[in-house]
């Protein structure tokens, strides 16, 4: 969990999400908050990210998959 929470203000309860959804989304969309870790029963249950951060993660994952496939093909071509 320590890697999920870099700062104390990133943790938010499920109850707070239910009460303040608009404010939470506004803070993420405006860049005032980089992420929230939603806690349920004192354990992480979900992560809320701005769309740009999510898309960047997806792009990086796709790049890593392509790189892994290329390495695999290079190794099999060398045999």
Number of helices: 3
CATH architecture of the largest domain: 3-Layer(aba) Sandwich
Q: Please identify the structural class as seen in this structure.
A: alpha+beta
Mean pLDDT score: 92
Overall number of structural domains: 2
Low-confidence stretches: none
Number of separate strands: 3
Beta-strand percent range = 15-25%
Biggest sheet layout: 3 strands, mixed
Secondary-structure element series: EHHEEH
Helix content: 55-70%
Q: State the strand order across the main sheet.
A: 1-2-3
Distance between the ends: 42 Å
**Gyration radius, rounded:** 18 Å
The CATH topology of the largest domain:
YefM-like fold
Q: What shape does the CA trace take?
A: elongated
- For the record, the CATH class of the largest domain is Alpha Beta
Written description of the protein model:
The chain has helices spanning 14-19, 21-30, 51-78; strands at residues 11-13, 36-40, 43-48. Strands 1-2-3 form a 3-stranded mixed β-sheet. The protein starts with 10 loop residues before the first strand and ends with a helix. The protein has 79 residues and is α+β, with helices and mostly antiparallel strands. It folds into 2 domains: 1-48, YefM-like fold (3-Layer(aba) Sandwich); 51-79. The longest helix has 28 residues, at 51-78. The protein has 3 helices and 3 strands, in the order βααββα. The mean pLDDT is 92. A hairpin with a 2-residue loop joins strand 2 (36-40) and strand 3. Helices cover 56% and strands 18% of the residues.
